[in-house]
Amino acid sequence: MHDGQAAHREPQAGGPRKACRPHDFHERGRRLSERLTRSAMAKITYIEHDGTEHVIDVKPGLSVMEGAVKNNIPGIDADCGGACACATCHVYVDEAFLAKTGTRSAMEESMLDFAEGVEENSRLSCQIKVTDDLDGLVVRMPESQH
Ligand code: FES
Question: Which spans does this entry mark as compositional bias, Basic and acidic residues (predicted)?
Answer without folding.
Answer: 1-11, 21-33
